[in-house]
Amino acid sequence: GDSVTQMEGPVTLSEEAFLTINCTYTATGYPSLFWYVQYPGEGLQLLLKATKADDKGSNKGFEATYRKETTSFHLEKGSVQVSDSAVYFCALGNSGNTPLVFGKGTRLSVIA
Amino acid sequence: DTGVSQDPRHKITKRGQNVTFRCDPISEHNRLYWYRQTLGQGPEFLTYFQNEAQLEKSRLLSDRFSAERPKGSFSTLEIQRTEQGDSAMYLCASSLGPGTQPQHFGDGTRLSIL
How far is CA B40 from the centre of its chain? Predict the structure, then answer.
């Protein structure tokens, strides 16, 4: 079945550092890919999405490109802030009657 | 767009008691999902509705769990005879359309079993 693998955390960075969180997937057909962010005590917020190969999703300085050839959707940000500290989930959504499939999450801590 | 709302935010109960959670989806969304999330893990799918029809249930959803979505609007998730292992965050999400569409999540109900 469909699956998502993302890099283990936690990741600790200094403010203004470059961020990459790796995500790879296995899926049949033509899934959509998502990054969600979860702040402490809250639900998941959609950060960005991409619906087809070579699409780039972007939001709040975060970017991810849907790479079908490498089955990847890595999350990047050029300069992280303390307020970006959260858990980030990569997710896959396929056509038909299927729920989202999530990675295990990567905890990011940004220190001033 | 008022977002997905869940009630209560926190529930503490004794083992063996029944609990019920409510989810109000975004009004025009026809699909509603329930997930369970334990500490340090990603959300795990429990069940989903399209309008009022419950279309899929995970093997995680034991006989003690039941979900309804009367009239295709809000949904309830009931857990009967709660067990320690039921302690988790229960997340509700809604979407407009098939699985390739983004799902919008509520803030969840955190269940603690004493």
Answer: 19
Measured in degrees and rounded to the nearest 5, phi and psi for residue B23 equal -135, 130
A106: contact with B, CB 8 A cutoff: no
The Cα–Cα gap between A82 and A78 comes to 13
- Looking at chain B, which residue has its C-alpha nearest residue A38? B107
B100 at the A interface (CB within 8 A)? yes
Query: pLDDT digits over A22-79, tens only?
Result: 999 999 888 999 999 999 888 899 999 999 999 999 999 999 999 999 999 999 999 9
Nearest residue to A76 (alpha-carbon basis) of A95, A94, A96, A90: A90
End-to-end CA distance of chain A: 41
Helix locations, A56-110, DSSP H: none
A99·B45 Cβ contact <8 A: yes
Distance from CA of B109 to the nearest CA of A (A): 9
Residues B7-55: tens digit of each pLDDT: 999 999 999 999 999 999 999 899 999 999 998 888 999 999 999 999 8
B48 Cβ under 8 Å from any chain A Cβ: yes
Could you give the C-alpha distances from B10 to A64, A87, B56, B84, in angstroms and in order?
Answer: 34, 20, 26, 16
